[in-house]
Amino acid sequence: MKQRFFLVALAALLTAACGPNREERINQIEDFEDSVFESANVADPATADQLAEMYVAFADKYPSDSLSPIYLLKAGEVMSNTQHTDEAVALFDRIAANYPDFEEVPTCLFLKGNAYEMNAQYDEAREAYQEYLDRYPNHLFSDQVRLMMPRLGMTPEEMLADILAHANDSIIAQE
Predict the structure, then answer these.
(1) Angle at 93 between CA 92 and CA 95, to 5 degrees
(2) CB within 8 A of 149, min separation 6: which ones?
(3) Is the dihedral of CA 3, 4, 10, 11 positive or negative?
(4) 110, 136, 145, 171 from 140: Cα distances, Å
(5) What is the mean pLDDT of the chain?
(6) Are 72 and 55 in contact (CB under 8 A)?
(7) pLDDT tens per residue, range 39-69
């Protein structure tokens, strides 16, 4: 009888130690996302970090799951938006390296440049944007990147003035 109780207790302990299963983790993430975005707590750095950690933990636990690159992308966006540039870039690089067939790899490369740009790391941003253009010259954001790359580091006012000053050049070039 004691041996049977011990085996049942051991099985329960091992099950609990393994943590939530895939579906429970997804539900936890979705519930947390709902609470964060519903109450606009995403601006709170601790909340944002917790959400990003949940995404990454899922991807670490289930690296071959189709949700993993999606969650890593979301984690990268959260990290980028909370000025955790190095963490964001590492996540975008991880997606590109580990999920080369993921349809959002081009977006990851764009977001990598954007993360650097938001952190005023203009040389790194230029390099990331150039990689994006080299690999995906006709992607959704490529025209935007071509327009913005020469203006990295300018204030919004300087950018507008520069764009307007060169607007005629673009029109003449198209004719």
Answers:
(1) 65
(2) 126, 129, 130
(3) positive
(4) 10, 9, 10, 21
(5) 85
(6) yes
(7) 665 567 788 899 999 999 999 999 999 999 9
Q: Using CB atoms within 10 A of its CB, is residue 12 exposed (0-12), middle (13-18) or buried (19+)?
A: exposed
Tokens matching residue 61: 């636990």
DSSP letters, the chain, are -HHHHHHHHHHHHHHHHH---HHHHHHHHHHHHHHHHHHTGGGSHHHHHHHHHHHHHHHHH-TTSTTHHHHHHHHHHHHHHTT-HHHHHHHHHHHHHH-TT-TTHHHHHHHHHHHHHHTT-HHHHHHHHHHHHHH-TTSTTHHHHHHHGGGTT--HHHHHHHHHHTHHHHHHHH-
Distances (CA, A) of 153 to 4, 85, 139, 166: 69, 17, 23, 18
As a whole number of angstroms, the distance between CA 49 and CA 62 comes to 20
Residue 174's pLDDT is 54
Q: pLDDT value at position 33?
A: 82
pLDDT of 68: 98
Residue 173 has pLDDT above 80, yes or no: no
